[in-house]
C-alpha cells in the first residue's frame, strides 16, 4: 500500500534537516498554577510534567506507559505545544519549535499531528465526515478541491470507513468509528511525527488490530515517528520499538521494548508488568504488588517520587532524588532509582 499518493511539498525548506533524530525533548516541564486564598494567589503548582528528556527516531515508536494521572497525555500535548511548556525545549529535526513565530509554527503543524483519546469531543459535531477529514488539507491549501476529495475517500477507506457516509455527522457513528475518523484526519498531511494518545482504547479487538497494522504500515511507508500513549501493556509491547515508563510527571525507566519487558529494573515498572492479567507463566505469589494511590502532584516531594509506595525504599530514597542513569551499557537502559544496580 502506497500511502503518499498525494505529494505534499514542504513549503519551508529550513524545516528539513540531516539529523538522525526526528524529535528531541530536553528538560521539558509543564506546571499548572493552582489559585488559593482570599486573593486567589497562585502559590501552588501541579507538576504534570517534571523535567523530562527523550528522543524519537524517524520511523520508530516510543511507547509511553504509566498510571492514570501521571502526566502522559499532558506530555504529549506539551511536546506539540498544544499546552505551552513551562520550560524546556522541543526540537523537530534539529529545529527548536519553541522559538518559532506563529507563521513558522503553522508550517511545522503539517509535520506534527495528534490522535486524540476521546472520540466524542475531538470531532466537530457540526461538520460532516468529509469536512472533518478534509479540514487539514483545506487549512494548508493542499492540492485542488478534487484532489482533497479523493484524498478524503482514500483515507477513510484506509481506516475502514465506507465512502458512502461522507455526508454524515459524528453523532451517527459509534465511538470506534469516530476514533477511526480522527485517525484519518491526523494522517491527512503525511506527518513526520504523531502523538497517539490512547488511540485504540475505544475500539473493539478486531478494529484495534486494524489500527495497529495501519500504524506499522505508516512507519514503513512514510517513516513516521510515534509517541504511543497507552495503558495496555500488551499493545505497547506489540507496536513499540522503545518504552518509557512514567510516574508522577517523571520518566523512571526507559529502554528498548525487549529489555523493558524481559529485564525491568525499576520497582514501579515491575509492578506495572505484574498487574497485567496472569498467563500461567508467572505465579501470582511471586508478582510485585503495588499498594496505595498516586501521590498528589501538588506536593513538593523530597527524594524519590516513588518512595511512598516502593517496597524496597530506604532512607536515601526518602531524602535524595535519584538521577537518571544508564545501567545497560551500549544498549542503553535508563533508570532513575538508587537501587538499580543492587
Note down, in words, how this protein is organized.
With 342 residues, the chain is α/β, with parallel strands linked by helices. Helix content is 28%, strand content 22%. The chain has 10 helices and 12 strands. An 8-stranded mixed sheet has the order 6-7-8-3-9-10-12-11, with helices on both faces. Strands 2-1-4-5 form a 4-stranded antiparallel sheet. Helix 6 links the parallel strand 7 and strand 8. Helix 4 (145-158) packs across helix 5 (175-186). The protein is globular. The N and C termini lie far apart (49 Å). The relative contact order is 0.14.
Quick structural gist:
The strands form two sheets. This protein has an eight-stranded mixed β-sheet, with helices on both faces. Strands 2-1-4-5 form a four-stranded antiparallel β-sheet. It is of the alpha/beta class.
List keywords for this structure.
342 residues, alpha/beta, 10 helices, 12 strands, 22% strand, disordered N terminus
Task: Tell me the layout of helices and strands.
Layout (H helix, E strand, L loop, with lengths): L22 E14 L4 E16 L4 E5 L6 H8 L7 E6 L2 E2 L5 H7 L3 E4 L13 H11 L5 H14 L16 H12 L6 E5 L7 H18 L2 E5 L3 H7 L2 E6 L2 E7 H6 L4 H8 L40 H5 L5 E2 L7 E2 L7
Parallel strand pairs: 3-8, 3-9, 6-7, 7-8
Antiparallel strand pairs: 1-2, 1-4, 4-5, 9-10, 10-12, 11-12
Helix pairs in contact: 3-4, 3-5, 4-5
State the order of secondary-structure elements, H for helix, E for strand: EEEHEEHEHHHEHEHEEHHHEE
State the shape: globular
**What is the share of helical residues?**
25-40%
Relative strand content: 15-25%
Amino acid at each position: 500500500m502506497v500511502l503518499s499518493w498525494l505529494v505534499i511539498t514542504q513549503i519551508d525548506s529550513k524545516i528539513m534537516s540531516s539529523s538522525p533524530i526526528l524529535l528531541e525533548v530536553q528538560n521539558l516541564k509543564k506546571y499548572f498554577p493552582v489559585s488559593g486564598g482570599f486573593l486567589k494567589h497562585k502559590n501552588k503548582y501541579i507538576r504534570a510534567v517534571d523535567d523530562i528528556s527523550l528522543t524519537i527516531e524517524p520511523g520508530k515508536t516510543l511507547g509511553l506507559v504509566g498510571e492514570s494521572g501521571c502526566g502522559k497525555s499532558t506530555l504529549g500535548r506539551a511536546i506539540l505545544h498544544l499546552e505551552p511548556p513551562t520550560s524546556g525545549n522541543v526540537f523537530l529535526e534539529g529545529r527548536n519549535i519553541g522559538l518559532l513565530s506563529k507563521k513558522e509554527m503553522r508550517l511545522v503543524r503539517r509535520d506534527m499531528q495528534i490522535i486524540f483519546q476521546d472520540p466524542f469531543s475531538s470531532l466537530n459535531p457540526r461538520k460532516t465526515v468529509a469536512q472533518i477529514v478534509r479540514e487539514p488539507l483545506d487549512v494548508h491549501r493542499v492540492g485542488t478541491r478534487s484532489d482533497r476529495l479523493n484524498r478524503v475517500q482514500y483515507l477513510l477507506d484506509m481506516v475502514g470507513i465506507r465512502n458512502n457516509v461522507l455526508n454524515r455527522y459524528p453523532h451517527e457513528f459509534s465511538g470506534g468509528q469516530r476514533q477511526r475518523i480522527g485517525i484519518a484526519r491526523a494522517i491527512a498531511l503525511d506527518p513526520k511525527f504523531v502523538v497517539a494518545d490512547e488511540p485504540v482504547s475505544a475500539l473493539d479487538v478486531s478494529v484495534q488490530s486494524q489500527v495497529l497494522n495501519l500504524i506499522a504500515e505508516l512507519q514503513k511507508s512514510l517513516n513516521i515517528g510515534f509517541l504511543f500513549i497507552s495503558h495496555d501493556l500488551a499493545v505497547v509491547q506489540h507496536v513499540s520499538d522503545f518504552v518509557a515508563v512514567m510516574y508522577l510527571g517523571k520518566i523512571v525507566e526507559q529502554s528498548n521494548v525487549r529489555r523493558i519487558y524481559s529485564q525491568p529494573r525499576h520497582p514501579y515498572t515491575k509492578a506495572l508488568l505484574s498487574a497485567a492479567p496472569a498467563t500461567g507463566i508467572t505465579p501470582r505469589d511471586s508478582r510485585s504488588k503495588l499498594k496505595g494511590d498516586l501521590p498528589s502532584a501538588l506536593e513538593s516531594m523530597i527524594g524519590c517520587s516513588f518512595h511512598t509506595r516502593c517496597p524496597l525504599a530506604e532512607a536515601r530514597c526518602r531524602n535524595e532524588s535519584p538521577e537518571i542513569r544508564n545501567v545497560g551499557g551500549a544498549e542503553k537502559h535508563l533508570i532513575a532509582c538508587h537501587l538499580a544496580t543492587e
